[in-house]
Amino acid sequence: MTRLKPITISLIIALTFCFSNVFAQPSERDNYQGESPKYIFYFIGDGMGLSQANTAEAYLGAINNTNGIQKLKLNTLPKQGFYTTYASDRFITGSAAAGTALSTGVKTSISTIGMDAKRQKPLQTIAEMARDKGYKVGIVTSVSLDHATPASFYAHQPTRSMYYNISLDLSKSGFNYFAGGGIKHPEGDGKVDSKNIMANFGMGEDVDLKNKLPNSIELAKKRGYEFVNSVKEFNKLKKGDDKVICIAPKLVGGKSLPYFIDQNGKSDISLAEFTEKGIELLNNKKGFFMMVEGGKIDWACHANDAATVIQEVIQFDNAVSVALDFYKKHPKETLIIVAGDHETGGMALGFSGSHYHSDFAILQHQNLSYESFSNLISDYKKNNKGNYKVEDGLALVKKHFGLGDAEKGLELSEFEMQQLKTAFDKSMNYNKKMKKDDQFYLLYGSYDPLTTTACHILSQKAGIGWTSFSHTAAPIPIRSIGVGSDLFIGFFDNTDVPKNLMKLIENK
Asked: Of 51, 117, 129, 132, which sits with the fewest C-beta atoms within 10 Å of its C-beta?
């Protein structure tokens, strides 16, 4: 008889454990005999992979003088796993295809909202199933309500750029609570430039419509929805108010909430406050389903803006904290899931130029988002036409990023100084004919050169690297707690997440 060596036995045990977790999803789902959760929170961090959350924890640890990390609330959830994200027609997914997979349990093609890959058949979403089972349903997001991820839970359209039709589907859904950003094109989309993907990130100007269609906001009112868009009106909302659409009082690019780093607490409504109000309005004897998206984590990652990413993750985590407070009062009736649609930017906790060094605390010296800084540069360019001074650009960088301030430990090397000077020149003489395969794109993406360079230098000094201005195919972590949370342990596919949720509520 041949005896197996201890190391071989250990390997077999390890592989058995791994593969049992990989393939456990369908069988565990089919065999589930437990209760249905009465209250379901489905959090989606758009663009949030493992690195985005861990970077926020490292930052919090650094500014609070902790040796290591300070855990986010979302990482205290006890049941954890990972899943793949590929679309039906591309390995690196997009928000529409990923959102549809996470809402319907079916792979679809890039840019498709709530339909099959051939864009012929509408697919039932977990939110629609919850509505039909008697749950009240809420959709909350930091981007526009008709953006890809929220739309994937209520709309069925061939492409995400059909914002007007998506906004019509919003009020047709009959969902009880929509909150966050605004409606991008309430009177029609006009001529859509399919090549202008930056419009998905709140960039670019809307074209005036020649032929306006019936206003989708007014149609929603006719269908019984109440519109609220001020802090005063928002605070007046109370339990019993139904079919409410809450739009943030101040909207920025893409009809989104301002970045958390740019928000003013008195005049803005945070993602956590929208979540808390959702609980108040949706709570009832039959329960509720609420999807909450941190949509601008993705946008900040596209721009490689680490400081803004961290603040967006913190804002998202504040919303998770609100749900956890609710869970503590209803632990035997609540399920909380914290997921993501894909990773963006190829964010890494390490940079080749900084070797093994990290200094996350220096990110606190950035005091505004890349978007706000880009607007400052744009205004400077308009107001100083023909009289651009590189000293002015460097002064703005120092004021808003701390770069060049020796007292903050942010001295610039000759190489970094030259990078900023070159970028300033590019910003002042921007050429719209630059192509994606040019060196220009590799350095700056589709963003303002000076802004991107400042973000990159600060990231690199902190010990953070970026590989892309786009999405990546990295598997995404999922955290959960509560009723049925055992179904979300292991390594599986993004389509398994809504399949598991559908199993949990099918007999409600």
From this structure: 132
